[in-house]
Design brief:
Blueprint (H helix, E strand, L loop, with lengths): L8 H17 L12 H10 L5 H14 L3 H5 L3 H8 L5 H19 L7 H4 L7 H12 L8 H9 L8 H11 L5 H14 L29
Bound molecules: iron/sulfur cluster.
């Protein structure tokens, strides 16, 4: 894609075909993390690093039973929090992150998670990816989160040639209409986990095979 001119009509049409096929395969464009509001999703997203969503879903209800409000977690004893989130891995770092995040939200935004990308990324530990997930999921605000799956799949499908996540986000935003941004990452992430795996993509059963220029496609395994 040209950096100066933006995508052609043909490239946009191709992107639309890709997203429509993913929408057919994954009708529910939403995270597998359980949450009841923006605050809980922010915390669940931090906890989801290097573990499964199912694992996080087991821990989150216990955590919010113990600390129902942002203020409660901001004033928590780290050792108590560590015991609760232990099973998600990296528990010391994650405990520090979520307590700091809570304190930051109390200090900067009176305990309310802001529905704004620029304000969200001012919170310690919240990058564009996490902020975009929360905006798209909770408020349906047009946003595209670029994680490792989105990065890999977008490259393989030729939707970007960039490696910097902010540039990839800009490329994807130029390809898809704004009203569909919120669904782009959720569907691509599901597809990346399910079919277009990092090491061994299931190319033989891929619904986007005819749209993919990836050179190392996996052949159908012999039975
Ligand atoms: S053909 Fe293979 S590499 Fe290409 S998108 Fe499908 S699973 Fe991914």
């Amino acid at each position: 894609m040209s950096e100066t001119q933006g995508p052609s009509t043909e490239q946009k049409r191709n992107a639309s075909v890709i997203l429509n096929r993913l929408a057919k395969r994954y009708p529910k464009a939403e995270t597998a993390l359980n949450y009841s509001d923006a605050w809980q999703l922010l915390v669940a997203t931090v906890l989801s690093a290097q573990t499964t969503d199912a694992n996080v879903n087991k821990v989150v209800p216990v955590l919010f039973d113990a600390y129902p409000t942002v203020e409660d977690l901001a004033g928590a004893n780290p050792e108590d929090v560590e015991k609760i989130i232990f099973s998600t891995g990296y528990y010391r770092q994650k405990t520090k992150s979520i307590i700091t995040l809570a304190a930051d939200i109390v200090e900067k935004y009176d305990g309310e998670v802001p529905a704004d990308l620029d304000q969200l990324v001012k919170l310690r530990g919240v990058g564009r990816k996490t902020a975009s997930v929360v905006l798209a999921e909770v408020w349906n605000v047009p946003a595209i989160a670029v994680d490792t799956h989105v990065k890999r799949v977008a490259h393989r499908l030729g939707l970007t040639t960039n490696t910097d996540p902010t540039k990839i986000e800009a490329d994807l935003k130029a390809l898809f209409p704004k009203k569909r941004w919120a669904e782009v990452s959720m569907r691509i992430i599901q597809f990346g986990r399910d079919v277009c795996d990092a090491k061994k993509p299931r190319c033989w059963e891929c619904p986007l095979r005819d749209r993919c220029a990836y050179e190392n496609k996996t052949p159908r395994p012999s039975s």
